């Protein structure tokens, strides 16, 4: 499981997809959601701007990511 560090209280799904280079712009989020399996803490995600917080587990297709907050 890979770890993704975020800064602040949360990050939106579209922002994290850009951060991971799955999409290049927010406009691609809808298409990406339709063609990939995305789970947040085991629940299917269909909201483009779903808030993802430290402690959450995001699964994109077969890859899992643990969201962690800024440690500094």
Walkthrough of the structure:
- The protein has a five-stranded mixed sheet with strand order 1-7-6-3-4, with no helix packed on it.
- Strand 3 (38-40) and strand 4 (43-44) form a beta hairpin.
- With 72 residues, the chain is of the alpha+beta class.
- Helices cover 19% and strands 35% of the residues.
Layout: helices, strands, pairs:
Blueprint (H helix, E strand, L loop, with lengths): L1 E5 L4 E2 H7 L9 H7 L2 E3 L2 E2 L6 E2 L4 E4 L2 E7 L3
Parallel strand pairs: 1-7
Antiparallel strand pairs: 2-5, 3-4, 3-6, 6-7
Major sheet characteristics: 5 strands, mixed
Integer-rounded radius of gyration: 11 Å
Residues in β-strands, percent: 25-35%
What general outline do the C-alpha atoms trace? globular
- Determine the fraction of residues in helical runs and give it as a percent range: 10-25%
Distance between the termini: 22 Å
Q: Quick one: how many beta strands? A: 7
* SSE series: EEHHEEEEE
